[in-house]
Structures are given as structure tokens and as C-alpha cells.
């Protein structure tokens, strides 16, 4: 069950996106949120990146109708090299994803060796990278036991919420 | 309290006694009785207090008198500057020289130090800035880390560093009358030069942040020689800009007094940065300026329009397109030299 605070938070988050409608369904509950004014909604470029949670989230961007759409701010990271997310589904392994929007760092300092390399063995507590936003450094742990088989983001790159950062072969 | 050594507890007790009896002589015998250790041990600890800035007058047979409150951010000194309503920073661990106060705070956390504990140091040998840049932290600066362990959702955690920026600027303005400004997201500038940096490290379990170590480093009484020649056009200190010395403990108390209610609002009522967004904008050093931002691996130039309630920077590009910068660094602007 979602708590009231969490629902409030969802509404706030939804407000800040260009997503028009959000539906969450689990075994025990259903939540549907819709924005009142659908005509000013632009098609978000990043919707595909956000559908990665365990709960079922439908994001249905409404195509803008006849009236002109105000130019909504576009997340800049979209111009970055696209991660190999599109074909991610077919690939084997577990993905370590970014829990937040931020800058991806593979090492604690520029002159230090990266936390992990391709082939590194990790356990759930192994720090694999740092994602930084607003001068907040979040050390990301692997959360699983396995071997890093692919590094999917570049050092210093801006990463999106839910973006795959590493592919891990589970052991 | 196992996270604190007996030696530290004795030193704090001794410092408290002297501060309580400011200007009054205390004899070695009195102190020995009060604290429950030998007179020789008392002298040893008084030597430590002298090293960190306590000045004693010695009078034969009468004892030792503390002449004035030192500027050192030692717990009994810091708490003198805290408002009654301020709960953060009631426990302060002070070290003379450390690698980084954030590292000590992290160790103390695992040893059971409570929420609100602060770590201060006279000097840091490995102070850190963003991207692992070193932050020069000689004697005279305020080098502190604050341990915050109230649960917080991850997507709200970025507000802590923004709030800390506003709190610090506000403290300098309200308590000391200094026109501090903010460079996005939370560098503090005085007369367009950086005097303070803020950086936090968090531990999160998926979406739940269970601890934040908030590091604040301020060039309080640094002199020109303390600043690398190549940084002198962009970095400074309170003392260099005003010609006055400041008490590090008082600056720390002032920051905590401003930050405390903002943090409470964030973790208890979900208010957070949205409540001080207007104030942030009024303190912003580059609003309406042409700025250049390092964004991941590329640089973008544009007009700084605003920030949203999550602290995301809004910029207007030459082609009229508006972009959102959720993470990055301003590397150039019209009014600030970098």
C-alpha cells in the first residue's frame, strides 16, 4: 500500500514531468493519476527510460493537439550517447541501474582506479560507482553477487533515473 | 557512549569547566577533584587545550584562568552559539588534524554516533571537492561534517545540500552582515569569490537514504598565503574579504541555527527546498547572466533563467531552446571569474 505521503510525493513528481497520466497497479492496489489540462502536454522524450520499476507504471503521453505546444524544457542528457537500453531486454544478466538523475563517476577521484572494471567480481555491498547531483555523492552498491560483464555509461556522463549502468552475470 | 573515547570526554569536561568559569581561576586540585583524575593528567589535557587555542593565565596558588572564549569549534564552545531550538551540533567531536572530517563522521556513524553529531577539525590533509578535487584546508578554516540519520527518500536528498547552501549564506548575512551569494548549486561566494564549499555523501538502500554526511568547508580566517596563487582571483576567505577575524565556532553555530529548521521541515513535513526557493533565487550570484555549464562530458552556454524546486538549473540556449540541468557545474559566467 502507498502511504499518503508517498501519494503526495507522486503527485508532486508527476507535476514536474510532462507525463499526462500515471497508473500504478500491484496485487493490492491501483492508483490512477491524470492531469487536468491535457492539451499543453508535450511528448516527453524520456518516457522509455522511466518504465523500469517493479510496479507497473503506464506513462501515456498524449500527442499534442491542434494548438501550439509551449516548448517544454528538454532534459539535456538526451543528446548524450544513448545507452544500449533498447536491446537490453534480449540480453542476459542483471542490470545495475541509476537510482537518480546525476553525473556518473566510475572512480572516487580522477586519479584513482575505477571502482570496478569489466570482469570484476562484485557482491551486494561492492561499491560500483558514484552518481552525483546537487553535490550529493551517492555511492551505488551492486546489490547482487556476480561479475561485471558490461559497463554501459561513460565516466562523467549524465545519467537518467533507471538508466542501466552495468550488466552483471549473476552467480 | 562508546563512539567517544575517555580522553575526549575528559577534555570536553575540562573545557566546559573553564568556559563555565570564564575569567575565574581554577586550581589544579579543584579540577582534579571535579573530573576525578590526577593533577598530572589535568596538566596534560590542559596542554592539549592550549594547543587548540585556549589561552590560560597562571597565577601561583590560585590556579589557571581562561581569559577569553577561544574560536576553536570544540563542543563546549560551539554550543554557546546554538539557539535553544537547535538540536543539531549538540555533540561535536573535534580533531586537530584529520584526512577528512567526512571520513571521521563516517567512522563515528558506524561506531554509533547519534544523529546531529558534528565532526570538526583544525586542518584536513585530504579535504575533498567535487570530482575528487582536493580542497585545501589549512588552520583557520571551518572544516565540519554533520551526521544526519533521519530517513529520507532518495529523490529528496539533493535538497539537503541546497538547503545547506541557503542556510550558510543566510548565516553569513544575518549573523555577520556579509553579502554572501550562492553559485549553483551551493557554492558560497563573497564579493564574487568562493569562500565555502558544501558536499554530502549519502548511504542509501535503494530509494531510502538512511544517512547523510554533510560536509561544509569554509575559508574563515585564511590569509592570502593559504590560497594557491592560481586560485586567488576566484577563492578567498572571510578574513581576506573583511579584514576581520571570525570565531569558527560562532560561524558554525550560526550555520547550524539556520540549517536546523530547514532540515526539520524537510524530514518531518516534506517542505524542503520549495520553501526557500525564492530566497535561493534572491541569493543567486548569476541569475540572468550568460553562463557556461559543464554537463557530463559536454559544455553548454546559455542564459541562467531560474532553478526549479528540485534545484534543477533552467537555461535558455542561443537558439531559444530551454534546457534543464539536473547535475553539472557552472564553469564560466559574466560576473564571476572561475
Automatic annotation (TrEMBL), chain A:
Classification via SUPFAM superfamilies: Single hybrid motif (SSF51230)
CDD domains: biotinyl_domain (cd06850)
Domain Lipoyl-binding stretches: 93-169
Key words, A-Z: Biotin, Fatty acid biosynthesis, Fatty acid metabolism, Lipid biosynthesis, Lipid metabolism
One Pfam short name: Biotin_lipoyl
Keyword Lipid metabolism: yes
InterPro entries: AcCoA_biotinCC (IPR001249), Biotin_Carboxyl_Carrier/Decarb (IPR050709), Biotin_lipoyl (IPR000089), Single_hybrid_motif (IPR011053)
Compositional bias ranges of the Low complexity kind: 66-79
Example of a GO biological process term: fatty acid biosynthetic process
Keyword Transmembrane annotated: no
UniProt signal peptide: none
Pathway: Lipid metabolism; fatty acid biosynthesis
GO molecular function, one term: acetyl-CoA carboxylase activity
GO cellular component: acetyl-CoA carboxylase complex
UniProt-annotated stretches for the region Disordered: 60-93
Function, as annotated: This protein is a component of the acetyl coenzyme A carboxylase complex; first, biotin carboxylase catalyzes the carboxylation of the carrier protein and then the transcarboxylase transfers the carboxyl group to form malonyl-CoA.
Entries under PANTHER family matching the protein: OXALOACETATE DECARBOXYLASE ALPHA CHAIN (PTHR45266)
Protein name (Swiss-Prot/TrEMBL): Biotin carboxyl carrier protein of acetyl-CoA carboxylase
Automatic annotation (TrEMBL), chain B:
Residues annotated as binding biotin: 100-102, 124, 128-130, 194
One Gene Ontology term from the biological process aspect of the record: protein lipoylation
Catalysed reaction equations from the record: biotin + L-lysyl-[protein] + ATP = N(6)-biotinyl-L-lysyl-[protein] + AMP + diphosphate + H(+)
Keyword DNA-binding: yes
SUPFAM superfamilies per UniProt: C-terminal domain of transcriptional repressors (SSF50037), Class II aaRS and biotin synthetases (SSF55681), Winged helix' DNA-binding domain (SSF46785)
Domain BPL/LPL catalytic: 73-267
DNA-binding region per UniProt: 28-47
PROSITE patterns given in the database record: BPL_LPL_CATALYTIC
Protein EC: 6.3.4.15
Cellular compartments per GO CC: cytoplasm
Entry keywords, A to Z: ATP-binding, Biotin, DNA-binding, Ligase, Nucleotide-binding, Repressor, Transcription, Transcription regulation
A molecular function GO annotation: ATP binding
Family: Belongs to the biotin--protein ligase family.
Protein function: Acts both as a biotin--[acetyl-CoA-carboxylase] ligase and a repressor.
Protein known as: Bifunctional ligase/repressor BirA
Amino acid at each position: 500500500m502507498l502511504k499518503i505521503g508517498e501519494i503526495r510525493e507522486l503527485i508532486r513528481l508527476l507535476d514536474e514531468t510532462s507525463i499526462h497520466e500515471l497508473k500504478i497497479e500491484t496485487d493490492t492496489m491501483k492508483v490512477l493519476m491524470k492531469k487536468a489540462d491535457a492539451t499543453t502536454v508535450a511528448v516527453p522524450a524520456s518516457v522509455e527510460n522511466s518504465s523500469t520499476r517493479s510496479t507497473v507504471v503506464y506513462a501515456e503521453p498524449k500527442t499534442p493537439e491542434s494548438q501550439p505546444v509551449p516548448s517544454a524544457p528538454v532534459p539535456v542528457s538526451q543528446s548524450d550517447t544513448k545507452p544500449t537500453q533498447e536491446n537490453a531486454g534480449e540480453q542476459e544478466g542483471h542490470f545495475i541501474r541509476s537510482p537518480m538523475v546525476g553525473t556518473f563517476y566510475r572512480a572516487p577521484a580522477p586519479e584513482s582506479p575505477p571502482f570496478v572494471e569489466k570482469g570484476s567480481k562484485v557482491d551486494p555491498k561492492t561499491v560500483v560507482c558514484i552518481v552525483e547531483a546537487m553535490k550529493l555523492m551517492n555511492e551505488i552498491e551492486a546489490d547482487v553477487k556476480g561479475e561485471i560483464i558490461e559497463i554501459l555509461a561513460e565516466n562523467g556522463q549524465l545519467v537518467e533515473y533507471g538508466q542501466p549502468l552495468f550488466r552483471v552475470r549473476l552467480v | 557512549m562508546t563512539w567517544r573515547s575517555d580522553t575526549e570526554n575528559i577534555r570536553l569536561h575540562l573545557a566546559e569547566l573553564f568556559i563555565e568559569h570564564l575569567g575565574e581561576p581554577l586550581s589544579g586540585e579543584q579540577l582534579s577533584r571535579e573530573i576525578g583524575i590526577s593533577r598530572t593528567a589535568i596538566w596534560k589535557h590542559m596542554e592539549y587545550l592550549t594547543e587548540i587555542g585556549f589561552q590560560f593565565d597562571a597565577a601561583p596558588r590560585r590556579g589557571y584562568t581562561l581569559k577569553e572564549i577561544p574560536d576553536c569549534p570544540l563542543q563546549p564552545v560551539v554550543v554557546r552559539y546554538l539557539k535553544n531550538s537547535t538540536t543539531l551540533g549538540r555533540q561535536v567531536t573535534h580533531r586537530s588534524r584529520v584526512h577528512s572530517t567526512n571520513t571521521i563522521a563516517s567512522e563515528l556513524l558506524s561506531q554509533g554516533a547519534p544523529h546531529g553529531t558534528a565532526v570538526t577539525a583544525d586542518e584536513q590533509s585530504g579535504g575533498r571537492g567535487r570530482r575528487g578535487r582536493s580542497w585545501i584546508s589549512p588552520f583557520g578554516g571551518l572544516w565540519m561534517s554533520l551526521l544526519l540519520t533521519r530517513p529520507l527518500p532518495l529523490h529528496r536528498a539533493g535538497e539537503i545540500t541546497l538547503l545547506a547552501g541557503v542556510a550558510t549564506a543566510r548565516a553569513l548575512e544575518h549573523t555577520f552582515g556579509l553579502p554572501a551569494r550562492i553559485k549553483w548549486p551551493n557554492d558560497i561566494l563573497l564579493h564574487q569569490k568562493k569562500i565555502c564549499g558544501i558536499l554530502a555523501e549519502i548511504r542509501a538502500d535503494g530509494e531510502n537514504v538512511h544517512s547523510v554526511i554533510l560536509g561544509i568547508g569554509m575559508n574563515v580566517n585564511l590569509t592570502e598565503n593559504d590560497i594557491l596563487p592560481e586560485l586567488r582571483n576566484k577563492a578567498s576567505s572571510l578574513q581576506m574579504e573583511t579584514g576581520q577575524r571570525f570565531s569558527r565556532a560562532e560561524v558554525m553555530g550560526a550555520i547550524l541555527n539556520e540549517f536546523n529548521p530547514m532540515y526539520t521541515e524537510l524530514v518531518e513535513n516534506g517542505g524542503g527546498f520549495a520553501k526557500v526557493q525564492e530566497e535561493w533565487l534572491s541569493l543567486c550570484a548569476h541569475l540572468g547572466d550568460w553562463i557556461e555549464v559543464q554537463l557530463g562530458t559536454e559544455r553548454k552556454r546559455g542564459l541562467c533563467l531560474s532553478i526549479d524546486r528540485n534545484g534543477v538549473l533552467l537555461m535558455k540556449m542561443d537558439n531559444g531552446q530551454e534546457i534543464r540541468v539536473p547535475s553539472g557545474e557552472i564553469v564560466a559566467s559574466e560576473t564571476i571569474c572561475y
